[in-house]
Design goal:
heterodimer; A: alpha+beta; Alpha-Beta Plaits; 2 domains; four-stranded antiparallel beta sheet; 8% strand; B: alpha/beta; Rossmann fold; six-stranded mixed beta sheet; 33% helix; globular
Chain lengths: 306, 228
């Protein structure tokens, strides 16, 4: 009962502090919002880079063209062998007939090619095998595996659509942004802690009389400290709410403009933030609350030692 | 009740607040501590409420050695010693009732107990009819009585009053001293730190005289012996 009463009074004192120091609170919230925005810009860049890399990775594959007269058994053997490798994600085999149909489909608007095909008595195309690796780094191994003498003699040609240079570039850009973003985040976090520290010091100064009397009449240090720590956490949570609203608005407005850079594919920003909404809000909320609570604790502690 | 053994307080390296002070105060005593400015009166008061720590010696209050009291225990000590200062220390935006109940609120007392205790202490100091006035609507003496009421809410065994009449005229001083005597008659130990000759002489009680940080006189029925 006493605990509930004390808690109620601590919250009531805390609320009064917030109202009395509204302008200082507003400045604190603004800096916290900037800190949270910088963190989320970093997260967003990561999400965009991952999405770009994933799109590029999906475009990588090895196409193996077999000689037209390759027997079905050899094709099966090649498919089974390549599919059995742990480095392989998928193997799709198109028979010679399917390859011809696909070729005709691709060139349906080109009568000269279709006429040339009709001139031939036999299907000039062989079967095709498209292999995708589990990881981009696995392709050299798979290319080597295709030299298996059990079926390599039937391979007419192989093409490897290599996007690794593009992937490297995206990864490099992402790493650079991550590096500078991290520096920015650390700077903003330190600024936030310092500003909260000073805001609480100012709050203490405006309430020095009341705090002095509280200490004089036997209020515990926790009773003096907690309202100010609750204030700081309130500011942090308010900043979290405002930054979440800002980020949602920025994504809704900005993501359509990113479509052009992603060749019409989903840049994945909204998807990422929607899927990770709870862990992001909880994680950021906990970290920012901890930072401001510690800053506040230190600010009050310094005063309580006097 | 209060036992100070060989207490010395040195500020910095060579400023002596108190020098080898030995005092024993029994329960229910009314003790005046007198001395000129800088004699060490306020230092002594600050040591009793653990606002400062002695450089040497031992302080015991009710058998509790507070010489090296932990910071977290100070609030419990201050609930056992009511403190009254010269500069009132009232919250201007709170009424008499709110100022007094504030001491109970911050100590976690229930609302029911607050409603019982506050009218009682206001009656003791004679302010039960002015409970809803603000400090600026009261005289200096009345404001000091509010402070005394606030100091009494925890039913302290000791009331420490540091120059409580320093800012008051003769009539208000008499009012405040009457309240302190009344509290002493209820059984509380009262320590009055003052340099008011008339007050000390009118009380005809124990007088401890300090000069340059030392006790130069400790008489059971003493008088103000210093030159004005």
């Amino acid at each position: 009962m006493i605990l509930v009463t004390s808690l109620g009074r601590i919250i009531s004192f805390s609320w009064k502090n917030i109202i009395r120091n509204a302008w200082i609170g507003l400045a604190t919230v603004l800096v916290l919002v900037l800190a949270l925005l910088s963190v989320n810009v970093l997260i967003g860049v990561n999400a965009l880079a991952s999405s770009a890399i994933s799109i590029l990775e999906k475009k990588i594959d090895v196409s193996v063209y077999f000689l037209p007269e390759t027997p079905e058994a050899i094709l099966d053997q090649a498919r089974s062998y390549m599919a059995s490798l742990p480095q392989t994600e998928s193997v799709i085999v198109s028979t010679a007939d399917q390859a011809l149909e696909a070729f005709k489909e691709r060139h349906s608007n080109d009568p000269s090619i279709l006429d040339a095909l009709n001139e031939l008595d036999e299907n000039p195309l062989g079967a095709t095998m498209i292999i995708k690796a589990s990881k981009t780094t696995d392709y050299p191994y798979l290319m080597e595996a295709l030299n298996n003498p059990q079926f390599s003699f039937a391979i007419e040609s192989k093409t490897y659509d290599d996007h690794t240079v593009a992937i490297d570039q995206v990864q490099q850009i992402a790493a650079t942004i991550r590096y500078f973003g991290l520096i920015l985040t650390v700077i903003f976090t330190i600024f936030s802690a310092l500003i909260v520290y000073n805001a609480i010091r100012v709050a203490i100064y405006t309430q020095r009389e009341e705090i002095g009397i509280m200490r004089l009449v036997g209020a515990s240090n926790a009773f003096v400290r907690l309202p100010l720590i609750i204030d700081a956490i309130f500011f942090a949570l308010l900043a979290l709410l405002i930054s979440a609203a800002l980020i949602a608005t920025i994504i809704s407005v900005g993501e359509p403009y990113l479509l052009a850079f992603y060749d019409g594919a989903d840049p994945g920003l909204k998807t990422y933030f929607t899927a990770n909404f709870v862990p992001l809000v909880v994680g950021e909320g906990l970290v920012i609350s901890l930072v401001v609570a510690m800053a506040s604790w230190a600010a009050v502690g310094k005063y309580l030692k006097k | 009740m209060i036992d100070l053994q060989n207490i010395s307080k040195v500020y910095g390296s060579d400023v002596h607040g108190l020098r080898d002070v030995n005092v024993n105060i029994e329960p229910g005593e009314f003790v005046c501590i007198v001395g000129t400015s800088g004699a060490g009166k306020t230092t002594l008061a600050k040591l009793l409420i653990a606002e400062e720590r002695p450089t040497r010696g031992k302080i015991k209050i009710g058998g509790w050695d507070i010489t090296k009291i932990k910071r977290r225990d100070i609030p419990y000590l201050r609930r056992q010693i009511g403190v009254v200062f010269q500069d009132f220390k009232l919250l201007k935006k709170k009424t008499v009732w709110e100022n007094v109940s504030f001491a109970l609120e911050v100590s976690g007392e229930t609302n029911k107990r607050i409603r019982e205790i506050v009218p009682h202490v206001l009656k003791v100091v004679g302010l039960d009819q002015k409970a809803h006035r603000f400090p600026y609507q009261l005289s200096g003496g009345e404001q000091q009585r509010v402070v005394i009421a606030r100091a009494l809410v925890h039913r302290p065994k000791i009331l420490l009053a540091d120059e409580p009449t320093g800012n008051l005229d003769t009539i208000n001083t008499a009012d405040v001293i009457e309240v302190l005597k009344k509290i002493n008659n209820f059984g509380s130990t009262v320590i009055l730190v003052t340099h008011n000759r008339e007050v000390v002489n009118s009380l005809k009680g124990r007088v401890i005289t300090l000069a340059d940080g030392r006790i130069i006189s400790d008489k059971k029925h003493g008088k103000y012996i210093l030159q004005s």
